[in-house]
Amino acid sequence: MHVHILADSGSDLPLSFFEHKNTSFIPLRVQLGNKDYEDLKEIEPIEVYHYMREGKVVKTSQASPETIRNRFLELAKQNKPSLYIAFSSELSGTYQTAMMIRQEVLEEYPDFPLEIIDSKCASLGYGLAVQFALKLSEQGQSLQEMSSSVKEYCQHMEHIFTVDQLDYLLRGGRISKTQAFIGGLLNIKPLLHVDKGRLIPLEKVRGKKKLYRRIIELMEERGDDFKEKTLAISHGDDLEAVEELKKMIEDHFQPKEVYVNIIGSAIGAHSGPGTLAVFFLNSSFHHELL
Predict the structure, then answer these.
(1) DSSP assigned state of 93
(2) pLDDT tops 90 at residue 186
(3) CATH number for region 157-281
(4) b/e per residue, 250-259, with b = 16+ CB within 10 A?
(5) How high is the pLDDT of residue 174?
(6) Which CATH code fits 4-155?
(7) Distance CA 221, CA 213 (A)
(8) What is the rounded distance in angstroms from the CA atom of residue 33 to the CA atom of residue 60?
C-alpha cells in the first residue's frame, strides 16, 4: 500500500497537483475584510495581490483544526499509511495543531500509521519536498523510509528570495522593525533566506540586475550538479521578473527543470506583490531519485 501524502497550502503547489489520488490538500486560511477564505479553494492569489496593491491589509491563520481532524480520521478509518509534510513551524502554527490532533486520532485509532514532518521550508521549497515524497511513495518506500528521506531533503533545501516591500513582512511579524527600516533605505532590494525554518535577512543589493546576478552567485556557492536537479521559482504576481530570472538560471546552469508557480495567498499575504524566490538543493544532498 502506497503511503498517502498530505500537504498544506504553504507548499504553493497548484490544486491540480492534489488531484493525484494519493495526496490530500489542507488549506491555510486568509482573511479579507471580515470574511475568511480557504487558500486556493475559495480564493485565488491574484485577488489577494490586487487587494494588497490597493493598500488594504490581508490577514492569515493556520489551517482549520476541524479540516485536519476530518482528513486524519478519514485516513485512519482506512488504516492507510500517511505522511503529512507541514509548512515550517516557525511561520505557522499548523504543524503544532496537527501534532495535537494526531494524538487525539491515535487514541481512537492506535494502529493508524501517521507521521508528521515539520518541513522547516516554505513556498516551493516546501512544494519540491512534497513532490519528492510523492516520487518516493510511487517507488514503494515504507512510511519510515519516506519520513527519513523527506526530512533529509528538507534540511538541504535552499531558499533565496527578495521582496518588493519589507513592510509586508514587518506587518505579519516575520521580521523586525529594524530589519524593515534598513531594507527600505535608498531603494535597496533585500535578499533573504530561510534558516531552520525562519526568515533571515541575508544582504542588501541595489538594482535589479545586480540582484539577479547575486542570486546566481549564491546558487553557485550553495549548490552543484544543477543539470541533474529540479529547481523552482515562485513569484508574487510578477511573471516578467520570473521569465528574466528563469532565463538567466537556465543559461548559466542548464538545470534538469525549472518549476514555476505563483506564491499562494497564505504566504503572499506576508511577502507581498513582487516577491521573487528561488529554491534548490544544496551541494551536500544526493539521492538516486532526483
Answers:
(1) S
(2) no
(3) 3.30.1180.10
(4) eeebebeebb
(5) 47
(6) 3.40.50.10440
(7) 12
(8) 11
Instruction: Report the distance separating Cα 177 and Cα 137, nearest Å.
Output: 43
**Distance between CA 281 and CA 225 in Å, rounded?**
10
pLDDT, tens digit, 9 for 90 and up, residues 195-224 = 989 888 888 888 888 999 999 999 999 998
For the chain, the structural domain boundaries read 4-155, 157-281
The 10s digit of each residue's pLDDT in 32-41 is 988 999 999 9
Helix and strand element counts for the chain (H, E): 10, 13
The arrangement of strands across the sheet holding 276-281 comes to 198-205, 189-195, 157-162, 276-281, 230-235, 257-262
Distance of CA 5 to the CA centre of its chain: 15
Element (H, E) at 191: strand 189-195
Cell numbers given for 165: 516591500
Give me the pLDDT at residue 26, please.
97
Domain 157-281 in the same topology as domain 4-155 = no
Contacting residues for 100 by C-beta, under 8 A, at least 6 apart? none
Alpha helices in 139-230 (DSSP H): 143-155, 166-171, 177-184, 208-222
Distance CA 4, CA 50 (A): 35
Phi and psi for 132 in degrees, rounded to 5? -60, -45
> In a 10 Å sphere around its CB, with 0-12 CB exposed, 13-18 middle and 19+ buried, how is residue 198 labelled?
middle
Averaged pLDDT for residues 173-192: 58
Q: Give the residue-averaged pLDDT of 239-266.
A: 96
C-alpha cell at 92: 505557522
**Mean pLDDT of the residues in the chain:** 91
Take residue 188 and report the three cell numbers written for it.
Answer: 535597496
Contact 230, 255 (CB under 8 A): yes
